[in-house]
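Work Package 4 report. The design task specified in the project plan requires that, given a folded chain encoded as structure tokens, an amino acid be chosen for each position. We show below one input record used in the internal validation round.
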């Protein structure tokens, strides 16, 4: 018997067995990671509310506000309030069709979502962006993390996204400038 015959296994080559084990291990790792992440999905209020901001000279800009929270806390949410504060002399309106809490594309009807506009004594630039403050509160029976996402138009027509983190039943405030054209 030669040495090469003793070391050579019959059937599958060792590298094929090792490769099969590595693929199986990789699949098990991916499956376990996906299972762990399934409980950490985020639900969100998307598209709510959408505001249009106008200046006295007829220019306007857009502002979209989204409030996100863990989907496992959906049953704890009782209401969502979003308010924008704009300078006196400008006008702002919320699109009523944009108000609603959506999870996986479905409207959640038992949670009230309101969009408000309040006017504040602040300097209104004649031809520059309008300085706006956004305030959001997720009213809930339990405490959990909340994220505020603000998308706004800027001077060159592009959209800019700003984030702010907070907690339920805590007012989250963020100041932004909205370009008007």
């Amino acid at each position: 018997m030669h040495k090469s015959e003793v070391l050579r296994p019959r059937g599958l080559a060792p590298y094929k067995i090792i490769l099969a084990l590595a693929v199986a291990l990789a699949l098990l790792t991916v499956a376990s990671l996906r299972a762990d992440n399934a409980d950490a999905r985020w639900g969100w209020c998307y598209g709510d509310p959408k505001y249009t901001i106008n200046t006295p000279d007829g220019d306007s800009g857009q502002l979209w506000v989204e409030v996100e929270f863990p989907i496992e806390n959906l049953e704890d949410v009782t209401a969502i309030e979003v308010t924008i504060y704009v300078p006196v002399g400008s006008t702002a309106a919320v699109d009523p069709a944009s108000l609603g809490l959506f999870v996986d594309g479905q409207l959640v009807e038992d949670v009230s979502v309101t969009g408000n506009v309040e006017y504040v004594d602040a300097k209104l630039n004649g031809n520059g962006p309008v300085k706006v403050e956004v305030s959001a509160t997720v009213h809930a029976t339990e405490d959990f993390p909340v994220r505020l996402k603000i998308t706004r138009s800027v001077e060159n027509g592009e959209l800019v996204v700003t984030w702010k983190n907070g907690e339920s039943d805590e007012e989250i405030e963020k100041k932004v400038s909205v370009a008007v054209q």
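The radius of gyration is 26 Å. Validation will be extended to a larger panel in the next phase.
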